[in-house]
Amino acid sequence: MINQKDKEILLEVKDMVKYFPIRAGVFKRVVAHVKAVDGVNFNVFKGETFGLVGESGCGKTTAGMTLMRLYDATAGKASFKGHGDLLQLKGTALRNMRKDIQMIFQDPYSSLNPRMRVKNIIAEGMLTHNLAKGSEVNDKVADLMQKVGLSTDHMYRFPHEFSGGQRQRIGIARALAVNPDMIVCDEAVSALDVSIQAQVINLLNDIQEEFGLTYIFIAHDLAVVKHISDRIAVMYLGKIVEMTDKHSLFDNPLHPYTKALISAIPIPDPTYDKKRVILEGDVPSPINPPSGCRFHTRCPIAQDICSKEDPVFEEKKDGHFVACHFVE
Amino acid sequence: MNKDKRPLLEVKDLTTYFHTEDGLVKAVDGISYEVFPGETLGIVGESGCGKSVNALSIMRLLESNADVGGSISFEGQSLPELSERKMRGIRGNDIAMIFQEPMTALNPVFTVGNQIEEAIILHQNKSQDEAHKMAIDMLRKVGIPEPTKRVDEYPHELSGGMRQRAMIAMALSCNPRVLIADEPTTALDVTIQAQILELMKSLQDEYGMSIIMITHDLGVIAEVADRVVVMYAGKVVEYADAVTLFKNPKHPYTWGLLNAIPRLDIEQDTLYNIPGVVPDPLHFPEGCKFNTRCTFCEERCKKEEPELIEVEKNHYARCFFIEKVEKEKAKTKAGENL
Known about the structure:
The complex is a heterodimer of chains A (328) and B (338).
Chain A lengths: L8 E16 L4 E17 L3 E5 L6 H8 L7 E6 L3 E2 L5 H10 E4 L13 H11 L6 H13 L16 H13 L5 E5 L7 H18 L2 E6 L2 H7 L2 E6 L2 E7 H6 L4 H9 L39 H5 L5 E4 L2 E3 L6
Parallel strand pairs in A: 3-8, 3-9, 6-7, 7-8
Antiparallel strand pairs in A: 1-2, 1-4, 4-5, 9-10, 10-12, 11-12
Helix pairs in contact in A: 3-4, 3-5, 4-5, 5-6
Chain B lengths: L8 E12 L2 E13 L4 E5 L6 H9 L6 E9 L2 E2 L5 H7 L4 E4 L3 H4 L6 H13 L3 H14 L5 H4 L9 H13 L5 E5 L7 H18 L2 E6 L2 H7 L2 E6 L2 E7 H6 L4 H9 L38 H5 L5 E4 L2 E3 L4 H13 L4
Parallel strand pairs in B: 3-8, 3-9, 6-7, 7-8
Antiparallel strand pairs in B: 1-2, 1-4, 4-5, 9-10, 10-12, 11-12
Helix pairs in contact in B: 4-5, 4-7, 5-7, 7-8
């Protein structure tokens, strides 16, 4: 891996916040907020895969959607190379951004329009951004379909005629069609069976190499994230608690939540002997997150200070960021 | 297997066929296995391999278009031949089941306590009051905080992990001999999954029940199972004790599957690709069902269906060319990785 300092920063996210208002009563007054993403900071380097991992409700998907401007951010900044602050873009500028950042979704069933043929699904982006005309479109679509492992004979079929894994390939071809710099993969392989999941992961790796893509890979499955990512950020209740390259994260996790998360994953080896940290209780509600460090209610090493002061997310070692009062 | 003990549940040549408008679907096509007292049998396979249908066949919970053949014997009784009345005495009492999605498996209009009490009153002749007390005890046992308060709550008031705990409480309230768990942790987060698996293990130690753990997750299987059945397209392709199966898989499908999962404990460059997709159950291929995706496939595999043979003591696999897998394994070991 290249030294962090030499790498080119493609995306720089600063204090990004996304609150969803909860309205109640006759006048639909805002009575509270779901604090889905509550101030996250991270950089994504060009050509790398940045993994964003956490349990359900931790805000990882919201973070991805906010970056894509599918939600409007409540606060914060996200500078993307050549586009300025993503979170402020409007009109044509916003449109142009979508050419450079594409997304692959979790559910290959609901993310493809059932009334459109595969060819049109893949070609739509190219046409919108004037990247191809006339017969060129067909050639390009055929080329993309081959690249993602679909038969070009199926160009005029509808999504329902494909299996889950094939649909995910259509989604990948659609994202590639506009020649993006970065793809946000939101749980892109979670809905797939083990053998199909391996096929799609390998495909994502291959096209990354071929097109020089940068990925933000959002997933709950730590083993998948470890396999595909260069650097990983672990989220808990709207905040990033730890961020570093994958080797330091798995060999030397610093945050107690990361430690518990890693130890909770079943290892497919019955003779593997491991010490397990079992966390008590459930993830608290993001409407009313705990005071201080949000993890203190479940943390095995929590002290008084943890419920009072929110720990600073800072660099403890080279490129290894943690938010915890008790990291030595 | 394990000749010294008598199996508690014995499934032999079980077939479950569905008559559908499009034709006959052979969801389960001749599977056999035993469950011994106090052990955990893992059944693993991808979607559509018949692992859940197999469970529903045992419990006799299938719809009328299902045609169940073969024998299922539980403590000497043949379950398919029992009257519906007698079956009801076994279901939930001797053999209990927990499901994947606790929100759909629990009744949303009754309190959790109500639903646990129902089973207790039905099977154990207890009064409402006693049943209520037992329900609270059960909830406490499965680690639900404030059970006296939670017992009167509705399923939607509980979190996913709590609901799964409540369902386990319900299943265990009658002290079953066999617990069938169908993907019990698939819908849960990993930290909650770890809690539930730990809970199931400790309850198994306490009650001495047998567990049939059905899942697609090989990690979960490695964690809990004593013996493992691997299913593919309605058939058992491999059957062995857990350590043997994970350390020394014989069938190309098992071997491929184990190499296709991203692992935390080892470094992998690329994942093994099992090409293609699971065949459509209406049009299973001739011969070996795995022949369309197998890297070791030869002419013979397309014509004849291999039998499940005992390749080593208590280790069964359904493949003509096991030695090819062995060779490939040796190569992989030499090169450390795929």
